[in-house]
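Case study: Histidine ammonia-lyase.
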Amino acid sequence: MRGNTRGYDARLHALRPHPGQQETAQNLRRLLKGSEILARYRDHRVQDALSLRCIPQIHGAVRDQLAHCRQIMTIELNSVTDNPLFLVEEDRLIVMPGGNGHGAPTALALDALAVAIAQLSTASQARCDRITNTHLSGLPAFLISPDSGYSGMMIPPYVAAALAGDNRSLAGPASIHTVSTCAGQEDHVSMGVAAARKALKAVENAVDIVAIELLCACQALEFHRPLRAAVGSEATLERVRQAVPFRDKDTLLYPDIHALRALIHQGELSAMLQALCEEE
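Here is what the predicted structure looks like once written out:
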């Protein structure tokens, strides 16, 4: 997409030191090392679109929200949430009625997680659209030879847009829709189950969106040859090509999306990139 790395400069992020933002920017600097493509287009534009330039801010905020959600869920999974609670103190049984059974901490954390996932989804979908737009990327329209007469990668960004739309709907909080139950005794409920189901669906959609971005990005890299991409991009391309080939004619693309979804779920690709990020 003829982007540049100015927006990932450590000096910028030191002035707004959110942990996720700084970590994301650092990861990008390491993964984008040695790119001949970036070197070629370093001065193509002053600044990139927000879905590229603000990856540290967007993805970093999502990373921070994930950390918060993990903290809440870890506490919850190691807590006692019965009611009443029975304690033994000095050989005496003490019955303690209370409210530890209320699921507000879980519900609020999962609602916030769904919002974060929606942010990640829309950013990924925007990049899918840009990379297939010849006027924005400078690559062949829909990442297929213009003389082929084929549609190439035209349809996958539609799928990403639909899934991102679903995730925007799923970002609406469940926890505010409390109702009175149990004859008024339980007159404020967490709606935590609804929040959990919603967040789970949002994550599933997001994995598919990222798989589509990965599909399009790897297809795009092939059109930059003989220029070499960055260390992280080349490693990713090599692994992706073990599962999905370059497409020079129209074919069913959902098997490719499913294959990349499985690759993401396996965690191998993430582990490989994390190892590259940790190299000095």
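For the exam, be able to explain this: Residues 192-222 form the longest helix (31 residues).
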